[in-house]
Amino acid sequence: MLTMFPELRSQIAIENIASLPTPVESLSFSEHAWIKRDDLTHEEYGGNKIRKLEFIVADAIRKNAKRIITVGAIGTNHGVATAMVCQQFGLECIVYLFDQPLKATVTQNLRLMQAYGARLIYKGSLFKAMLAYYSSPYRLQSGSYFLFAGGSNLYGTLGFVNAACELQLQIEQGDCPPPSAIVCAVGSGATLAGLAYGCQLVGLEADVIGVRVAPKKLGPIPACTPGTVYQLMMEAWRFLENHCHKAIPRPAAATLLDDYYGDGYGVATEKGLQALKRFKAMGIALEQTYTAKAAAAFLDQLERNRGPVLFWDTYNSRDMTARYSNIAPGDLPRNLPESIRDATTGHSGGAR
Length: 352
Ligand SMILES: Cc1ncc(COP(=O)(O)O)c(C=O)c1O
Prior knowledge:
Elements: E1 24-26, E2 33-37, H1 49-62, E3 67-73, H2 77-88, E4 92-98, H3 104-115, E5 119-124, H4 126-134, E6 144-147, H5 154-172, E7 181-186, H6 190-202, E8 207-212, E9 217-218, E10 221-222, H7 226-244, E11 255-257, H8 270-280, H9 291-304, E12 309-313, H10 321-324, H11 338-346
Helix pairs in contact: 1-2, 1-5, 2-3, 3-11, 5-6, 5-7, 6-7, 8-9
Residues 47-48, 77-78, 150, 152, 185-192, 290-291, 314-315 line the site of pyridoxal-5'-phosphate (PLP).
């Protein structure tokens, strides 16, 4: 991205957190099937959040932050990535947590956040967690950097504008053909917003298709909608216009599919489970909440689309067993309900 916008060099410090570029590989589903391996964005814990954190942590450090305060479901991947990176940079990490359906990946993430030294504050319902986040006593303390669920702020979005620039370079180098469509999972929105706007900026004419896996609203707050995604794109546009002192194209709206969501956030769908199995047979590990649903849409696009289709894999694939197995249920916050502690004990294996 800094090659395209050299003016940003002095204005947006990027801490080198991620291992980039991530590979692009063909998939044997068909000659048109490709994957972007963002499951490998970091040596220790990959996934899409790492790209966002490269820009977010740089912003936090520039603002003299001592701590990052965020919010998410008990199995939040964003919470794990943020806790890990905070530990790396000597920042405190506080996560307000709300419930989601319990499964192995969820309890493992809970243990990982604890292992990375995050202060976990369990609130039960989504409403209570949001209330606690917005009325947090840390708001009165200097050095507090508030980061909304999923890390989807301006800087998270810029992380994915950067990702589109990376892909364009890989295409120019002949690593993969220009895709006619790119498919990714959408929760808090910055992955889709940054990718779609970034593709537009680098002149990549792919149809960037987001697959909604999270509710349209979090309590009274709009969450996963075309409007929230577009708002992030507009923030990125304004930032680039202000900092680059030249005309930058306004973003075009991105595509957000509703059809793969099923019965709720974290609730598996039949199509998602089938897609998960097909990827597993190729040695690619997905999970039910995000990537299985996006993979189901990707497989449908492959059937419909005549050109190359790229699946943007957003889920960490590094083996974290050694990290989370040090954390026993007793190490978790005291106010966690018995049901979650029991599930944590029951989920001590590596099943997804
Ligand atoms: C594995 C995974 N994929 C996709 C997403 C969605 O990304 P975004 O929140 O940028 O829409 C998330 C967000 O939590 C995630 O954890």
